Amino acid sequence: MKFEECPVARALHFIGGKWKPLILHELMGGPLRASELARRVPEVLPKVLTEQLRQLESDGLIAREVRPQFPPHVEYSFTEFGQSLRPSLRELCKWGERSDVQAVVARRTGARASSEDARKGVRP
Question: Cβ distance 26 to 37 under 8 Å?
């Protein structure tokens, strides 16, 4: 199957990556300023956040609105096209809350910590 024929590949083109799903998840609660998004997803670098917001806007999933005030107030929110992702994002959230997924994450995190300890010469 070609990339453009695969619906999963097409979907991931829009929302794939480390930060886009988290940004979209935060916007499910309503419009947010970039600074608020940065507080809610503190691991993302400001430059990367800006790039991801621009890509989401360019793809038509979110809208950037500049409010006429001083200083200018910029908010990001879902477009109608972006709103169509809400049910899928909710299902992803439900899937991520399941205990079996949490167990895999815990094992992965524990394995990573153990391998880092081994590299540093730390014994359990």
Answer: yes
As given in the structure block, the two tokens for residue 119 are 């590299």
pTM above 0.70, yes or no: yes
Helix (H), strand (E) at residue 8: helix 7-15
How far is it, in rounded angstroms, from Cα 34 to Cα 120?
A: 38
Helix, strand, coil % over all residues of the chain, rounded to 5: 65, 10, 25
What are the phi and psi torsion angles at 43 (to 5°)?
-75, -25
pLDDT greater than 70 at residue 39: yes
Q: What is the CA radius of gyration of the chain?
A: 18
